[in-house]
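Researcher: I'd like a structural prediction for the single chain below. Treat it as a standalone chain; there are no partners to consider.
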Amino acid sequence: MPRLTIVADITAKPESVAMVKAALEGIVAPTRSEDGCVQYDMHQDNQDPAHFLFFEVWESRAMWQRHMNAKHLLEFKAKTEGAIAEFRLYEMTQVA
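Model: Treating it as a single chain, here is the predicted structure.
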């Protein structure tokens, strides 16, 4: 079965960059320890510090769906409500 690749593209509001970055950093370790997580990498744009990107690889969509409902992710969403200007999520399947 092909693995699932997720690209999460997040832009914080200018006044919330530090808080959003800290909250994002806080979900990395617990996510990496989740069943099915193969890769979970957080990046910050060199030109625009408000822009963050996650590159994720999951064993299956079902395992990623469990992640989306994990306690640490739900707490992140509550903590950053109103602090994120834009959020795009790309769900992809590796083909080569």
